[in-house]
Every structure is written in C-alpha cells, then in structure tokens.
Amino acid sequence: MVATSMEQLVSLCKRRGFIFQNSDIYGGLQGVYDYGPLGVELKNNLKAAWWRAMVYERDDIEGLDSAILTNQKVLHYSGHEDTFSDPMTDCRKCKSRFRADHIKDGKCPNCGSTDLTEPRPFNLMFKTNIGPVDDGANFGYLRPETAQAIFTQFKNVVDSTSRKLPFGIAQIGKSFRNEITPRNFIFRVREFEQAELEYFVMPGEDEKWHEIWKEERIRWWEEQGLKRENINIYTTPKDDLAHYAKACYDIEYQFPHGMEELEGIANHTDYDLGNHTKAQDEMNLTSECHKNSDSTQKLCIMDDNNKWVIPFVIEPSMGVDRGVLAVMTEAYTEEDLGEGNSRIVLKLKKHLAPIKVAVIPLKKNNEQIMNKCREIKNNLLKLGIGRVALENTGNIGKAYRRHDEVGTPLCITVDFETIEQQPESVTIRDRDTMQQTRVKVADLKDYLRNYFAE
C-alpha cells in the first residue's frame, strides 16, 4: 500500500540511513537535508535512470554540467531578478512568516490571528559577493535553476556538436531558492537538485513537441514504479503561467501530504534564447525578445533555408528530491504475515534499489563462511549491477527484515552446506515473494545477470 503518512517515511529515512536533517546536532537547518548511506545510492540511481533515458537512449540530446555561481546579468535578462518572488506576509501576534498564497481564511496557520501584514514580494534567489571586496557591486547568485546555463551555452554546444533542430541539452544539478516556508520533508526545500531538459524545436512545432514530451515523461515515471492512478496531469491556467511560459503541464503525484507537482513541462517559446541574444537587426529574426545590449552572442541556429532562427524550447523539469520522495512513497508497504507477524518492505524497482544484493553469512564471524562471502561479493561486483553489500550481523532473520526495509531485491545466504558440499551452492531469497531458491555458486553470475536484465 502507499504510505499513509509522512511520519512513516521520515522515520524510515532516519532509521535506515536514507535522509537526515542537515546540522542535526545544532538543531538543524530548516529546509536543508543530507542524504545518508542508502539515500545517496537511491538518489544516484534515480538520476542515472533519468540520464540514461534522456542522453544514452536517445540520439538527439547532449549533456551539460554547469557552474552553480551565476552572473547577475544572466538572471537579469532571464527575468528572474524582477519576477522570481513569492508573496510574503507576517503575523503581528506570533511573529511567524508565511507565503501569502498559503494563508486560508485570512488567519495565521500558527496561532489563528487575523492581524497579518499586507503581502509583499520576496525574492527567492540567494545573492552572494564575488571577489575579495564586498562593496555591493561585485555580486552574483546561486542559480535558482539549472536551465539558464543551458541557454547561455547554447551556441557552444551547437558549434561543438553540429546539432540541427530538433535537439536537446540535459543537465542534472543543484539549485537554490530561499523558500519562505520550507515544508513537507524534502518536498519543498532551500537546496535541491533538478534534472532539466531544454528541447529546442522549430517555431510552429512547439505545441506538437509539448504533447510528445508530456506523454514521454508520464511513461518514464511509470517505469520508475509510480502507478498511473496516483498521477494527475494539471494544465496551468494562462493567468497562472510563469513569465516565460506559453503553456505548462504539471505532472502531479499523490504524495502523503496531497496531490502536488512532481515535474513541470513548459513551453518557453523563444523567450530565453531571445532574451540572451545580442541585438542585431541585420539578423532578420522574427523574435521580439532580442534586445540584449550586454550579450556578445546570437543564440540562433540556421534552418534548412539558411536563415537564422531562434528555436522554441520545451522544458521537462524534474525535482530529483521530489522524485526520491515519490518513489519511496509508492514503494513503502506494510504487510501482515499472519500469527502476529508483519514487515515493512520497500518495493523499489530493481534499478533504483540502493543495495542490489546482500551477501549474508548464516553464522557470524565463522572464518570459512566469511571468506566465501567475501569471494562471492567480489565476484558479483564485477557484474556492474550496483552496490553489493556484505552483511555480518549474525541474525539471518533480522538481516532479511533490514534488507526488506531498505528495498534490497535479493539476499544471498552462505551457510555450512555452501562450504561443506560439492558443488557449492547458496540460498537466494526474493524480497517481494520471500521465496528461497538454492543456486550453485558457479551459476550465480548468470542468475543475477538475467534477473537484473528483466
């Protein structure tokens, strides 16, 4: 079943080493989290699945990894300096601060007072001094999104790869937003990771590609284990669109706290490339955006008729942290095993599981069994399937339950029969069915290779 509360996920994440509160020993830093030993594996596996689908499995997308520090002019011409803000209000009674659009019935969510300040805009970007002198003139921003560097590097990517429309540039990386009220665990935070694609198309073909990418991204999320009945497609009303968007779909997911956005798919038209393009009337461009006197480049591409074109852009933008929360929510299951027994199992897709295989000795610290465990582990690592863990707790039942909770698909038990009988064999236990199968050690690689290829 889907997790019934955020408390269940938060408890599991801390207990099993998925996610911790940042600076916890000092009371924590609100809206900032650290990924623990298993969380970093799950997050990396989700990012790898996105990168594989976007870059490796397609022939029309290139990758990029840009800097976090961002030139002020980039975010000026992108419109972020003027528009990237949320309405903020304060409660005069309890001194709490909230986003004004989250206030219901004009009452403070904390104390219920109606004595609230008038809403005022609050810029969400983190500003930082650049260089040794803090004189207010030499500053930049921590990027609020990964997209802008893709636009500013557009010409370099085109020149170095000779791409023609349509094509895309993909990037995964950290972004920073000074949220007024971070909330719902890792759903809304101040430091987060995005996986964004900017897909460049000919003007006039943007609406077609917008629909294509909507369906493509729904399909991908289903491949990560999300059930279609827990997904909703929200079409943003024109009055609520971002300053750069012509149209936008939100892929929403039924999180424990409600149906909320998991990924946005926006039609940017030529807004971004146009605003970053040097003003040159002789280019004979149709865009009305190219009025940038500070830019040194024309961010355009030649069409089949050798005319300069500013491409339109379709942007699927996924929150990696929200993705982690979604797949954990979907996978979290509590099962009644009968006779007063139960278990928690994280039924993650195999490719997302933090630990792919656990090798477990039946008897703790037995030298012969432990040597065989290490040998099996080292041989399985050569398969390249991901992390293979050696578990040496001495209690096989507790080891199974632990690996159920963290989502390990298979556990391999090495017992006395393994080292005493020929041919050598081990027991393989399946996470979801709990069925156990005896497999020869010599056949292990082929067994696992076939299992993870399915």
Protein model, in words:
By secondary structure, the protein is of the alpha+beta class. It has two domains: 6-69 and 145-328, 2-Layer Sandwich (BirA Bifunctional Protein, domain 2), CATH 3.30.930.10; 355-453, 3-Layer(aba) Sandwich (Rossmann fold), CATH 3.40.50.800. Helices cover 29% and strands 29% of the residues. The chain is built from 13 helices and 24 strands. It has helices at residues 6-16, 37-56, 72-77, 80-83, 147-152, 154-161, 206-223, 271-275, 320-331, 367-381, 396-406, 416-420, 444-453, and strands at 19-21, 33-35, 61-64, 69-71, 85-90, 97-99, 120-123, 126-129, 139-142, 167-176, 191-201, 231-235, 247-255, 258-269, 301-302, 308-309, 312-319, 332-338, 341-346, 357-361, 388-390, 410-414, 425-430, 436-440. The protein has a seven-stranded mixed sheet. A hairpin with a 2-residue loop joins strand 18 and strand 19. The chain starts with 5 loop residues before the first helix and ends with a helix. The model has no long low-confidence stretch (mean pLDDT 92).
